[in-house]
Amino acid sequence: MRYSFLLIFLLFSGISFAQQELQGRIVNEQTGEPLAYAKMEYENKENLSKIDGSFSLNLTKDKTELTFSYIGFEPQKFTVSKEVEYIRVKLTPKIEALKPVTISSEKNKPEAIIKNAIALKPQNDPEKRLKSFNFKNYNKFIIDNEANKLEMQSDSTNFELSTVINSGASYFSEKISRFYFSQKQGLKEEVLALKNAGFEKPVYEILSLSVNPFSLYHKDFNIFETDYAGPLEKSSFKNYDFKILDTTSSARPAYVIYFKPKRQRAVAGLEGILYLDTQSYAIQQAKAQLLGAVKLEIDQEYQYFPEKKLWFPKTQKTTIRPGNGGKSISIFGGMISSGTLQKKESILNNILAPGKTDPNLYLTTTSTNFDIQLNSEESLNTSAEIVVIPEAKSRLEDFWQKNRTEALSNQNKITQERAERLIKEKEIEEQISFKNSISSGYYPVGFWDFSLGKFFKFNNYEGIRLGFGGKTNKQISDDFSLNGYLVYGTKDEVFKYNLGTSIYLNKATETDLKFNYTRDIVETGSFHYLQGKNEFSIVEPRFVNINFFYEHRTISSGLTHRFGSDFKTEFRLSKSDISQTRDYSFLLNGQEFSEYILSEATFSFLWRPFAKFLKTPNATKLIEKGYPKFTGQITKGFSGVFGGDFDYTKFGLLVEHEIKRLNQSRTEIILEGNYATGEVPLTHLFHSLPNSPSRNGILSRFSVAGRRSFETMYYNEFFSDKQAMLHIKHQLRPINIHRLVQPELVFISRHVIGDISNPERHSIPFKSLKEGYHEFGIELQKIILGFGLGAAYRYGPYSLPTFDENFAFKFTFHLDI
């Protein structure tokens, strides 16, 4: 093995001596500004400079003649010898005596070309022109260090990428897929083969990373979870300036159109060139770049199908290298700085993946479409966007050789071996598992994953709530887990606990059988959805000031099941013994109930019809949230069944919608309705998520604002058996002060209307919401370390006599992990 590596090294060395790498920059002689995409001709070849005017050419002769040209500038010729390593080329603007009307005409020419390209998108965009198509795709994803002169690929989650990079390990993966498109289902991917160098188990999350957009025809296109304005959308003239650079002399000539963002701070955009067919105005080729905290480069090429008169995406290469600061690039939903590839600037990443990476780091991914079939009748019948077949991980080498569009280079093979060795030596797979556990709210120690939400909490009734909890992991079993917690309140001096188990009947459909016994307290009037909840939260703002609880001892069994990818359900049977923590009784048929038994059957669902999913042989993973999403629940209480005292029915429906814009502003809309009928005690009616303690003085009520709570509504002020709530939040684009300080100004409007039947059944007085409750709020979020400030004001029928009583002043806390 050592001798083979030595031969490879000598071979590379011989090649390097035979070639000369000439680097340089092309600039405007008068202003010194770089000339983006200037043309370079040499050795019967053509090349273009990058957006910063830089270039790198491999020359093979002792002396080479180069010609540099740019529209509106005088061309220049140079002869360079092999000893020259760097040149700075200064082009002089042409001085032409042209009539004003001619100047205007030339200025408008690229605009006219772009307008034609936009108008003809329906006949040029394959996803609009064709009813259906499918094609195979070979993808290679590499991360490596430029100094090593090796290539490397990354197949990993957001945390995996930062782990691999910050550890200095190479990473390499490749994939073979078939894509299917239809007007009804859109573009779907079937993964036929997948390799993750160095990992024993498949790293499926890499499949969800949007690295290579299918085409630039979209209104906006996504790269690493960041949306960039498309250069051929209807509002492109608001976002981009255009300039014609050249016209190619190929069999089908193309206009070479340069595009540059107009308002980069407001709308994310790339700088690049489009090769537009002079006859059809279709994209033949595209190049796009972004310079800033990183250097991002994208190259796309299209293949022409004469019988359809259609250009179809053929190849794409995306490369990312560390930049020199300046503009920042958003990647994995956040910032890349100093070359670190991670989802976002977050406390979790800074703690678990500290330090800077080597400036020679680079990431590159190449993708090639082949076996393209237009208007094919084949389809992929699934609700998931990406499906991994069971055989994908076990493909033999002959399958790869038949489907690779390019053979693995010696560099690739060396990188694979290096990645396999380093990933095992540095225990990257274990680090990834640890970080994924942390991000989902658990801290793994051996066979037990401790729940981070159980160690410490505080509320007015229990005082300090201390304890621990969690679940067993795969070290115990892949077929089941045990879970539970034990906590103690220092004020009420009572232990609370839970014991349970989940049996995994079918991992692919997430069919789990659950059994639980719980003794704890629950807030009176709260309504919890079995599905669609996020159990892990570092801060639960409302929990601190809650003072009205009931005690329960509940035994339950449940069954979860996923129908398709976007519809997950849970059915639960439970029996609860209820007692009170304060003086309350439910009056029914001449009897007073302060202790009672509730026997319930509950059906809950989470439906995400607009989300995107990745379906693997053993699981379904959410890869893009998609809105609106719907969470629903129906609960039936039975009288006389297992000792149940009351007969009732409860309904809940929660609709969440989010509108994200390219200018980074966002609007969130939450609509929820609750309805209860029958014999329902106050403990199981509905409040409206109040979040203001009933104390005198604004500062005495100072607390942390919730996500969908009413900040001016006092605890225990209103209860309802029917209510409808509307929350609207509009966040302006972040104020860019520093990469770690980007506060967000948010305007909030909240409304709820409701009513209560038979209020005389409850021994505690409270108000109805039949006249409608309204409040307006404003927040400045994420001022520093996730903290911000907010204020809210109550108005309308339930406004109180003084400003002090209607006003709430709040902390806000939003932590990205």
Automatic annotation (TrEMBL):
Gene Ontology molecular-function annotations: carboxypeptidase activity
Leader sequence segment: 1-18
Name recorded for this polypeptide: Carboxypeptidase
Gene3D superfamilies: Carboxypeptidase-like, regulatory domain
Pfam families: CarbopepD_reg_2, DUF5686
Keywords: Carboxypeptidase, Hydrolase, Protease, Signal
Phylogenetic classification of the source organism: Bacteria, Pseudomonadati, Bacteroidota, Flavobacteriia, Flavobacteriales
SUPFAM superfamilies named in the record: Carboxypeptidase regulatory domain-like
